[in-house]
Design a protein that fits this description.
alpha/beta, 10 helices, four-stranded antiparallel beta sheet, Rossmann fold, binds adenosine-5'-triphosphate, six-stranded mixed beta sheet, 2 domains, 256 residues
Length: 256
């Protein structure tokens, strides 16, 4: 579904992503792991069009999308969540979903101001879509709650709902389980499995190794911007280079 060739991003003299060849296969859960500062978020920023690569190429379903801006990439079916959830705290969950969806629908500013027939039609479509995705992520009962009043884990589900509202093919999840407890983490892992079962392709950055080992079909390991390993969870957990560079030098470190 997505392929990178020698993808590179430098910030001044600092090479954040260094000649990475990578592939995301349709229908799979692919994980990107690596220590802090390894270049994982920068890699997501490159494939979602937020950053322009210094060199290298990105292909989406065979099409070269290397220098496309983020809104075009989004239209082509890539949605993402961010490490810190970007929701409007004072607005309700429903309004957040409608705003998020509206930003990607067609009516322009004036159409919204005069509330044209097309605008009203789009608005009701957004509302319907919002209800659908909230149900999918198990958060229907939160629709009318202000975001500020829901838990961290619920916010994570809403952020995923927001990504799903655009009907993506590929969803990029940046540390979806950060800051939530073990029970909540397994609930979230179930949701990610359900997304895969629904036919979505998923790429996930996550530090919680146990979750990744249970969830991922394939893992890429980054270290200082460079891909140091790639393979199934079983292959990665016995890879000497990975154990030394990332898992702390002993196989025990894998559990965390
Ligand atoms: N906008 C930027 N400007 C300058 N340097 C940046 C920028 N974004 C990232 N970097 C640098 O690129 C390197 C990779 O950072 P990145 O955030 O991609 O790592 P990461 O693997 O996502 O880390 P973490 O797990 O802590 O989120 C770091 O050295 C970082 O300081």
């Amino acid at each position: 579904m997505l392929k990178t060739e020698k993808l590179t991003k430098s910030f001044g003299g600092n090479i954040a992503v260094n000649a990475v060849d990578f592939q995301i296969n349709q229908g799979e859960i692919t994980a990107i792991i690596g220590p802090n500062g390894a270049g994982k978020t920068t890699f997501f920023n490159l494939i979602s069009g937020l950053h322009r690569p210094t060199s290298g190429k990105i292909f989406l379903e065979g099409e070269d999308v290397t220098n496309k801006p983020s809104y075009e990439i989004a239209k082509m079916g890539i949605a993402r969540t961010f490490q810190t959830t970007k929701l409007f705290a004072e607005a309700t969950v429903m309004d957040n979903l409608i705003i998020g969806h509206r930003l990607r629908t067609k009516s322009g500013f004036w159409s919204a101001v005069i509330r044209s027939k097309r605008y009203r039609k789009e608005e009701s479509e957004c509302r319907e879509k919002a209800l659908q995705v909230l149900e999918f992520v198990g958060a229907s009962e939160l629709a009318n709650r202000p975001v500020a009043s829901i838990s961290q884990e619920e916010q994570k589900r809403v952020a995923i709902a927001l990504a799903l509202a655009t009907d993506p093919k590929l969803v990029l999840l940046d540390e979806p389980a950060a800051g939530i407890n073990a029970d909540e983490t397994s609930g979230l892992a179930e949701l990610i499995k359900k997304m895969k079962q629904a036919g979505l392709t998923i790429c996930i950055i996550e530090h919680k190794m146990q979750m990744i080992m249970n969830l991922a079909d394939r893992i890429m390991v980054l270290n200082q911007g460079t891909k140091i390993a790639e393979g199934t969870p079983a292959e990665i957990s016995r890879n000497e280079t990975v154990i030394e560079a990332y898992l702390g030098g002993t196989p025990h470190a894998q559990a965390h």
